[in-house]
Amino acid sequence: MILLNDVSRCYGTKRAVDRLDLHVRQGEVFSFLGPNGAGKTTTIKMMVGLLRPSSGTVTLGGFNVVTHPEEANRLVGYVPDQPFLYDKLSGREFLEFTAELYGLTRAETERCIQEQTQQFRLHGFIDQLTEQYSHGMKQRLVFASAFVHNPAILIVDEPMVGLDPRSMRDLKDLLRKKADEGLTIFMSTHTLPVAEEISDRIGVFHQGKLQFLGTVEELRSVQTQADCTLESLFLSLTRDEE
C-alpha cells in the first residue's frame, strides 16, 4: 500500500532523507522511530504531498503522489504532529468541512460524524468552538477527521501527544483493530512502548537513513547487548559518532 523507492529530499546541501526504500503492506502497523531531526516528518510530508521528493518516487495504493495527487490523497487519512483547526468552527462544523472536501453526501456526512463522535468520545465538546479545546481535545478531533472518509491508509505523526491515559489506551486499541480489518497505518512516534505494543514492524531512522527495518524481536536478535529493551536498542542504533 505504501511504497517509497529511492526517495531523497535535499535542503540546499543537506540531505534530510537519503535514498529511502520502504514498503508497508496492507493491514500493517508500521512505526517510524528516530530522534528529532532524523528526517521522519520530512518523509511524512512527502508521503502526503506537502513536499516533493528531490528524487525517487512515493506511491500510495498504486498512485504516485506527485503525478496523481488527488487519487493518492483520497486514500489517506493524515494526523500531523501539531493539530490544525479553524478556531471559529465548532468540532461538528470542522468534521462537516472535512467530509465535504472528500465529496461525501449530506447523509454520509451525518452518519460518519455520529460514528466518529462515538468512537473518539467527542460528545461533550463537538458543538463548542475549537478555540476552546485543550490539546488533547484537538488531537481527538483531528483523528476523527482523518477517519471521516474511511481511508485505506492512515499516516500519523506523533499520535499520542497530549492524550490522557484513557484516550491513549482507546487509540492504541483502535489502531490495532483497524489494522486487523485491513487499514494500513504508518506511525511516526517517540513513544517507544506504544510502538512496541501495537506495531507489526518498526523502522529506525537516523540522519536521513534507515538503520533498521523489521520486528522488535528481529531487532533484539541482531543486537548483542544484555539490556534488550526497545529503548536501549533504539539508543544504540541512533547514537551519534564521536
Kindly summarize this structure in a few lines:
This protein is of the alpha/beta class. 37% of the residues lie in helices and 25% in strands. The protein has a domain at 86-150.
Write the layout of secondary structure elements.
Elements: E1 2-11, E2 14-24, E3 29-33, H1 40-47, E4 55-60, E5 63-64, H2 69-74, E6 76-79, H3 91-101, H4 106-119, H5 135-147, E7 153-157, H6 165-180, E8 184-188, H7 192-198, E9 201-206, E10 209-214, H8 216-222, H9 230-237
Parallel strand pairs: 3-8, 3-9, 6-7, 7-8
Antiparallel strand pairs: 1-2, 1-4, 4-5, 9-10
Describe the structure.
This protein is of the alpha/beta class and 242 residues long. The chain has a domain at 86-150. It contains nine helices and ten strands. The protein has helices at residues 40-47, 69-74, 91-101, 106-119, 135-147, 165-180, 192-198, 216-222, 230-237; strands at residues 2-11, 14-24, 29-33, 55-60, 63-64, 76-79, 153-157, 184-188, 201-206, 209-214. A six-stranded mixed β-sheet has the order 6-7-8-3-9-10, sandwiched between helices. Strands 2-1-4-5 form a four-stranded antiparallel β-sheet. Strand 4 (55-60) and strand 5 form a beta hairpin. The longest helix has 16 residues, at 165-180. The mean pLDDT is 90.
Report Rg.
18 Å
Largest sheet: 6 strands, mixed
The number of helical elements comes to: 9
The rounded distance between the terminal residues' Cα atoms is 39 Å
Overall, the morphology is globular
What is the helical fraction, as a range of percent? 25-40%
Q: State the total count of DSSP E strands.
A: 10
Strand order of the largest sheet: 6-7-8-3-9-10
Structural class: alpha/beta
> What string, H for helix and E for strand, traces the elements in order?
EEEHEEHEHHHEHEHEEHH
Q: What amount of the residues lies in strands?
A: 15-25%
Residue-averaged pLDDT: 90
- Indicate the low-confidence ranges by residue numbers: none
